[in-house]
Amino acid sequence: MCVPFTFKAKVLFWFFALCFVIIAGRLAIIQFQHHIKYSEACSQQNSVKVALCDISRGHIYDRHGNSLTGTFSSDRIVVLAVDDKIKAEVARSLARILGISETKLNHLLSRPGILPFPLTAHQKEAIITKKWPGITIQLVQFRYGIDSLAAHIVGHLGQLTSAYELHKLHKVSGKTYRWDDLVGRAGIELFYEPFLHYSEAPFAVSQYIDAEGRPLAGLDINIVQSNHDGGDVYLTIDAKIQRCVEKVMDNHVPKGAVVVMDVHNGDILACASRPTYKPQDIEEYLRTGEGECFFNRALGLYQPGSIFKILLAAAALEEKIVTPHSTFQCQGRDDPLIGCWLDKGHGVISFQRAFADSCNPAFAQLGLKLGAANIISYARKMGLDDQNITGFPAPPDPRQDWRLLERPFNLVNASIGQGPVLLSPVQITTLTAVIANGGYKIKPRLVKELRRGDKVVKRLSPEPGRRILSTQTVSLMQKLMTEVTTTGQGVAAYLPFWGSAGKTGSAQVGNMGSINAWFTGFFPLDKPQYAVTVLVENGISGAKTAAPIFKTIAQEVMKERMHQRKQ
Asked: Which of 49, 186, 243, 284 is at a distance of 20 to 30 A from 298, taking alpha carbons?
């Protein structure tokens, strides 16, 4: 019997030894690896903490590091824990200082948070002298200010809607989310949500409390700094150019879009859509049902009208189907192919003048000569079948289908930018950039890099351009587009001193006679640097409505460039 007993004893010994090792190992992990986590959790049970920012997220900057959300800081009253014995007295005194109702303050003092009242220097001094326990004045950072820009690009935030969404965000980002967190709902805020989100606010203020939630006497209010896990997004937008564009649009474009692009690398320097909204007041826009203001017209698909003649002209010259001196017959309003805007017609007109005067019958004839296959081929070469923007992913709109040009009776309308032809203002700007930069296809870029502090986490470099037009074709196209602004339909877009070139467009919408007015062009003429596209919905024509706006914006851009060079 001794042998079995000895065997059982050994088994029990090693079993308990293994249990001891496991427990000791677990205790060691808790002590050395997770001690900060658990000590913080213990501390939080005995303290109250308020973040010193309204939204714990990384910033969205322009190319020079300027905030696009209008981030600002302001001194505010921070409530941590107010003893019930003095709450009524605090509310009464604070109401007098701030000039608001005592009832409202009683409610606000009942829970930790930031009071929504800006403070004057006199109010700040009066509150500090009171030295109320559980109340402090701190510098608080606010995400959205009155100087926010590019609302449709930056996007907006919204509340979490379900436990599934909370779980999904945590799984994708590996970060902590709480029910009261605001998350991205559109634009950069949505696309870079996992990167921008902070699990903890970078700065907070805390105070120790007793079991009944009262501040502990003799203990100071502390500033707590966290190692946040969020990052910042730097866009290609230039805030000064964006501000100029938005100011012009507020005065002249109630409904439409403007895009400004660097023709050499595809960087979008400004991108604006109207009507717009204020991200800081998003709940008000959602409540009133003003859904149209959320639509980004710079990325929307429209019939481009005569703007599309840029592609036809470039393709025809490249294929040597025409020369600038080739002639066409225009019979005006009664032309058998398609009517011209000039009722009496242009008669015999050269290709050069047909482009400058935007003669529809001439381009309908040209489209038939080119054929649908050629037009589709050049549209794809120029990137007009690609709605993606570097750093700004978006699902493609299936309505943009170039195969529709091959269907019966579509080619004539397509040749003048109507019918099945649909392009976004960003795509049109890319088309214009091909002519301006010497014949190279470039991809538009909106995001420059992602950073955590001073460290670049990811750099989204411009894609190298690929030549798609010969230098001869580009030279001829630049001359044609210059003739538009000097002697043709786009004279109102000509830029004094620097010079500009471009093309007008007037696209009829529906059967009501409404016109979408377009102008797209580039400047300065000697060394083209910028391409700008203007869309004005419900305009008169491209020549009368969009061309003057292009000129105003181009002048502002050049003034800003001259100013930057002087600095």
From this structure: 284
Tokens, residue 542: 């491209």
Give first-to-last CA distance, the chain, whole Å: 98
Beta-ladder partners of 129: none
Cα separation of 210 and 249, whole Å? Answer: 57
Q: With cut-offs at 50, 70 and 90, classify the pLDDT of residue 540.
A: very high
- Across the range 547-557, mean pLDDT stands at 97
User: Does residue 258 sit in helix, strand or coil?
Assistant: strand
Residue 475's domain comprises 239-271+298-566
Nearest partner of 397 among 367, 377, 427, 358, judged by Cα: 427
In a domain? residue 232: no
4's CB contacts (< 8 A; 6+ apart) are: none
| 464 neighbors 441 (Cβ within 8 angstroms) | no
Give the pLDDT band (50/70/90) at residue 18: confident
Share of the chain above pLDDT 90, in %: 71
Sheet of 113-114: strands edge to edge? 113-114, 72-79, 135-142
Domain assignment present for 133? no
Question: CA torsion sign, 329 to 331 to 332 to 337?
Answer: negative
Q: What is the CATH number of the domain that holds 525?
A: 3.40.710.10
Cα–Cα distance measured from residue 516 to residue 534, given in angstroms and rounded to the nearest whole number? 10
Q: Helix, strand or coil for residue 344?
A: coil
Tokens of 38: 């658990």
Residue 390 neighbours by CB under 8 Å, 6+ apart: 266, 443, 444, 445, 446, 447, 460, 462, 463
Whole-angstrom distance, CA of residue 214 vs CA of residue 363: 81
Q: Quick check: bond before 118 cis, omega within 30? A: no
The pLDDT value given to residue 532: 98
Residue-averaged pLDDT of the chain: 90
CA atoms 172, 174, 179, 180: torsion sign: negative
d(CA 304, CA 477): 18
The pTM (predicted TM-score) of the whole model is 0.88
* 336: in domain: yes
With bands split at pLDDT 50, 70 and 90, how would you rate the model's confidence at 208?
confident
Domain count, the chain: 1
Pair 415, 307: CB distance under 8 Å: no
Beta strand spans in 369-442 (E): 440-441
